[in-house]
Design brief:
By secondary structure, the protein is α/β, with parallel strands linked by helices. Helices cover about 30% and strands about 20% of the residues. The strands form two sheets. Strands 1, 2, 3, 4, 5, 13, 14 and 15 form an eight-stranded mixed β-sheet that branches.
Length: about 475
Amino acid sequence: MILKNAIIYVNGSLQDGALLIIDGKIISIINDKIENAMESILSKNKDGIVTDCEKRIILPGIIDIHSHLRDLGQSEKETFSSGTLAAAFSGITTVFNMPNTVPPAINAKQVKKWMKEAENKIKINVGFIAGVPNEINLEEIISIIQLGVFGFKIYPLDSLNGIDWTNYLNVQKLLNISSNMQIPIFIHPDWPISPEGKNEIFNNGKLNNLPILEVHNMMYPVSLEAKYVNFILDNYYKIITDLDLSAANYPIIHFCHISCIDSFSLIQKALDMKPNLKITFESTPHHILLDNTLQLSNPNYGKVLPPLRDKEHSLFLFKELKRGRINLIGTDHAPHTQKEKAQKYINAPSGFPGFETYPLTILDKVFRNELSLNVFVNVASENPAEIFNLRNKGFIKEGYDADLIVVEKIPESPINSEVFKTKAKFTPFEDYKTMVHIWKVFLSGLEINNDNTEFHGKILKQSH
């Protein structure tokens, strides 16, 4: 297949050209203005397909390192097929899937069942993040690692396995395993508050007629997110010092959905002091672009953990994104049913779909000249591929997988959740207008953003 008459993102800049794709790989990138260049690839084009991109932009497929594809006991919220279809239509060609499944993916048997369920039901490539086995059982952890997971996830607010992740001995035991096995630990940073404490905050908020998203933010405050980040960093340093670890054997930790100035500053200070620490973090599109003053048709559509913060935090995160100091974005795609979200605030679950708004909001900032294209491609594709060792992905290079997104700038139009492919047809971006049109999306050279595409996605496995 040839994609011709395109503007291609190559080596950090846009260039006119064409791509020759054979057997799912990018074989040639040519400047189609050069005489005889097109003839040279036409003669090699095995399937004879030539698509005129009409000067649209070709970017690497997006890699989303944080999603919840549900299925198994939660198929009313999302299935592997509906979730990956939503991703495919969004230009997302690879996702990491989180383990808060029903039952939770905390042992090798359940992880294997989880992966098996995904077979022949995924439109894009999916990597899996497991939960930590009961009692941090090393034998079980090794069995899970051998299945090819990309890491383990911990939730201190709602542990999947009954392990207290505010106990430093448990955290140090897990960090020690990460050091020995060189396996990443994905961390939801938040220090738990007692149910009584939460109720008191909620009742005070109601008494003072505060908007529900502001109350939600007060129940899960920035101070407790930062407290947990600091707790992890302290234990990280202690493991390195106590075990006298060389840099090659540092534990690998990844902080999920950093949402505030305080947490960002703690992590950045650690990395500024010692750049070879194996610490990464992501922010989400919603924490970068939205805040808790948001007016929604249903406030629960904006209920998420961590909460949407005060405006100063989103403004700060967007500024740091522009500066290139946020290296990764994860959507935290977390679909729920409309019925669940229609409940009273206290009963409605946290989370909302994120795949279909990610490029329509963040890439939109590029089209409005508020963010550089380089930053977008770095955070969306190149950095996740390099950091998580996704070979032959994340870049438009000869020999790399033809995971591609073809986009164009259009007159602004509203985001319409009614046409989402996810089962969760609502969004906190309901009033957002975008100038992004996703024209075509390719996975290994196969067009996947149409309803008739077969399930060509693969389960990605990390070799440890």
